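QA checklist item 7 of 12: single-chain prediction sanity check.
[x] sequence parsed
[x] length recorded as 358
[x] structure emitted
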Amino acid sequence: MSRPAAVPLSVIRDDVRALHAYPVPASAGLVKLDMMENPYSLPAELARNLGEHLGTVALNRYPPGEPGEFKRRLRARSGVPDACAMLLGNGSDELIHLVILACARPGAVILSPWPSFAMYRMSACLDGCRFVGVTLQSDFRIDLPAMLAAIDEHSPAVVFLSYPNNPTGNLFDRAQIEAILEAAPGLVVIDEAYLPFARRTWMEDLPRRPNLLVLRTLSKLGLAGLRLGYLCGAPVLIEQFDKVRPPFNVNVLTLAAVDFLLDHFDVLDAHAATVRADRERLATELHSMAAIQVFDSAANFLLLRVANAAGVFAKLLQQGILIKDVSTVHPLLQNCLRVTIGTAEENAKFVHALRASI
C-alpha cells in the first residue's frame, strides 16, 4: 500500500480547519494582566507544606473513580445544597463541553447573551450544535425582550449566563435571569467563575429550579494551574453528564492539592479580598483619566474604552505590560481593552504605562 504523498488534511472537518486555536500569548518577562489570574502565590511555608504533601501521592495509580470524601469536603466549602449533586471537571471548560455534548441532538441550539465567554460558542460548534448569541444592550445589560424572543424562536437546549459576564464584568439583573429560567425549555447554566470577587451566587436556588445548573471553577481564586471546576444541579441531570465524562478526568495531584488547601482557603479568601479592594482603587484612578471610559466590574478585571485600542495595546506591550485587546471580539466592544487586577505594584506599573500610551 502506498503512503499519501501529502499530509491528508482533507480528513479534518472543514469547521475545525476554519477555527483558530485558543490564543495564549507569550508572557515571559512581562507584567501579565491578560488572563484574569489571581496575582498572589501561596505563602512560602504553606507552599512548602503542600509540596511535601504532594510528594506522598501515588503517581503510579489512577485517580479514584469516585472521590466521595473529597466531594463531601468541597461541597461543604461551597455551600452545595444537600439535594444536589456535583460533577468535577478539568477546569470549567471541560464541564461546558460535557453539558453541551450530552445535549447535542441534531439541530440543538446553545444560546447566550453576547459578547460573553468564548468557550460557550466554541464548544457548541465543536460538539455539533448551533450557537445563537443575543446581543447585549449598549451598557452590557441583558436585552430581555430579545433574549425571550430568541428562546421562543430557537428553543435552546442550553442557555449559558456568565455571572458576572466575561469580558464586560457586570452582573446581570437577577429578575431578568429569573425570567430566563422561567422561559427556557431546556437547561440554564449560570457560570460563577468570578464568584470570589462578585460574592453573589445562585447555588441556593438549585433545589427550586430543576432546570438550573451552577458552574464554578477554582481558577480565579488562585488555583488556575490546578484546573479544577465543578458543576452542581439535580442528581438526575448530573448523572447524565457523568456518562460523557472521560474516566479519570481530574488528576491525582489536582485532587490532592485542592484537598490539602481546603483547610487553608482563608489564605485564598484573603487574597480575593485584596483583589476586590485593589479593583476599586484602580477603577477610581482610571476614572480620573479623561481619555478613558471605565465600566463597573464585579470580577477581577476592568473593561476600558479608549480612542485607539490596538494602538494603546501595542504601546503597553512595548513597555512590558500585557493586557487583552477585545476590541475586535464584538461591535459592542469597539476600542475596548480588558485588564486583570494585579498586585498593587503591577497596577501602578500599568497606570504609569497607560498614561504614556493614550
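[x] summary fact logged: The CA atoms of residues 109 and 156 lie 5 Å apart.
[ ] second reviewer sign-off
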